[in-house]
Prior knowledge:
The longest helix is centred in the middle third of the chain and has 41 residues, at 328-368. Strands 38-40-41-42-39-43 form a six-stranded antiparallel β-sheet, with helices on one face. Strands 33-34-31-36-37 form a five-stranded antiparallel β-sheet, with no helix packed on it. The chain is globular and about 85 Å long. It is α+β, with helices and mostly antiparallel strands and 715 residues long. The protein folds into four domains: 17-241, Methylamine Dehydrogenase, Chain H; 381-488, Sandwich (Immunoglobulin-like), CATH 2.60.40; 494-597, 2-Layer Sandwich (TATA-Binding Protein), CATH 3.30.310.200; 603-714, no CATH class.
Amino acid sequence: MEPSLARVDYLQVGVTAQKTMRLLPASGKKATQKVVVGDQDGVVTCFGIKKGEAVPVFKTLPGQKISRLELGGALNTPQEKIFVAIGSEVRGFTKRGKQFLSFETNLTESIKAMYISGADLFLCASYIYNHYCDCKDQHYFLSGDKINDVLCLPVDKVNCITPVLACQDRVLRVLQGSDLLYEVEVPGPPTVLALSNGNGGDSGEEIVYGTSDGKLGLTQITGTKAIPKWEIGNEKKRGGILCIDSFDILGDGVKELLVGRDDGMIEIYNFESADDPVLRLDYALSESIASIQGGCVGKEGYDEILAATYSGWLTGLTTEPVHREGGSGEELKLSQEMQSKISSLRNELEQLQIKVLQEREKYQQSSQSSTAVSSVPAFSVNDKFTLNKDDASYSLILEVQTAIDNVLVQSDAPLDLLDVDKNSAVVSFSSCDSEPNSNFLLATYRCQANTTRLELKVRSIEGQYGTLQAYVTPRIQPKTCQVHQYQIKPLSLHQRTHSIDQDRPMNTLMLKGQFSFAEIHSWVVFCLPEVPEKTPAGECITFYFQNTFLGTQLETTYRKGEGYFKSDNISTISILKDVLSKEATKRKINLKISYDVNEESVRHTLKLIHPKLEYQQLLAKKVHLIDALRELQVHEGNVDFLLPKYRSILEEADQLLEEYKRQPAHLERLYGMITDLFIDKFKFKGTNVKTKVPLLLEILDGCDQDGLIAFFDAA
């Protein structure tokens, strides 16, 4: 039987970061638990619930924003000491709110991730990991890419300190002291780590990870290697995972996996088969879930899931029934409770409305005075710009702590705006003059009331790069706007991967010149996404990429004074050659460029493109036939006389139209890629074949693979 979970909104604090809310251990067997949360105003709030109302235990003064909150204490005792990371400092509070620790670390950057185990403190800035024991520096490690989270396997089970770092380059790094023990490849950039079952499982070696593209997995971290146990893809195309907890919410004696995502989804997975988890329940909130915990908060005897959202709401999903079963007396008692609660809320609302009017009048008077100083209201925007592997598009997610009025999107690079199902905003396009202002896209999204989260999708063209700008205007007075910029890179559809197929026919671009390792690294960062901005340690580095649209690949290896770029797509090499020589010219660096073109690679790329081209041409033909076939159906009454292939088009008309609408200009993109491939092939030979492009387009309309390859060979 499925348990029914009722939603309860307890309290709103300031904007919260990832993993900044915890439940303190209960003082007795049936007692409720206190909630402690840290927000970006720098306030630590601890409260309990009595008769459905939040009762404060303590609240600290505002300050710098809190980036992490963890519970600690001596090993094998209740973990009830509260530790918060503020800038580069760690502060400790007792459960009553008394500060007992202020530890200023030697980190030059703000703390991004924190984990506590007994007297051991594990801290991470963007690229740096530090281990402290009793506030004394023990170990240090410089990561190759940004660190998103950190944890340590339980010392009482594995008998040694084994920290694990979740890094942006799709890798978990397992450390021993200050050294890298080994790396674990995972299917996406890991954003959060948690011990399986809350204790690392029977062995203490099992950790659960969640990725920014919504995948979930469990791996066993042994002393020598990692053993993957299970992995769940993101079939439903939900948001990235921000938080994970283990708690028995279903009451079956086995802890479920609680997952919070950045699109507001809360998921409960249980282990029916004892191996792979199965999604049992899910619940949608309207904003991202920054923290998630299982426990007993609202009423003793009733377990619940508590979530902290981005804008600071503490929301519970409780197993307590909303309508109690029983006699009329109990119903009457309940209604009286509810009535008193409603009347107190009404009074509070009236007082707030009066206060708002008074403050508005005060602001109007002060703004009209001769000594008036205009004040711009500050608001927080949580944004994420990521490449989706499934459909080779970019997702731009904008989340604001207050309701969004409108978002203006502008780009100086050619972009297609794609439809998003979850998007309820009304979009209107403005005509662009691409010549004087370099404007290729100008669109406005007008949001409905109470929309705090907006998701947009865009698809770029490789080789055409620039900046996408989002002007976010919330529903606050006086009107104010924030601009957020996102780089569209020359090879924008490439995504980092762990390895490539070395047997493919490859083209090679070789660069030599008087440039430093840092300079060539900055050029690669400019050209490709998912490359860490910090220059890698060592003298040489290799990165692998895959094109999410075509499936072609790229290998980059470079050091001081030389760089090698290999790809099975000649257009990728051509784009790199143009952009890198342009960047070197800007810095007045003389480059010696040489290349090795493999003729077979062109045929190989055409064979990769052709099935996509065939599918899109067939889809376009079917869509163009739908109106005519529907007209026939109206005139004739039935369509039994039609050939089966035409009848199937009519039956699938809605799905075909939906698919065509979801990916506009897909066919034109493929035509453009084949045309670029044709021009690039001959550009490396020093021949200009632009006059033959109309003939190529005629052959493309015929969609004959052999004819297309023959044309490329004969031209």
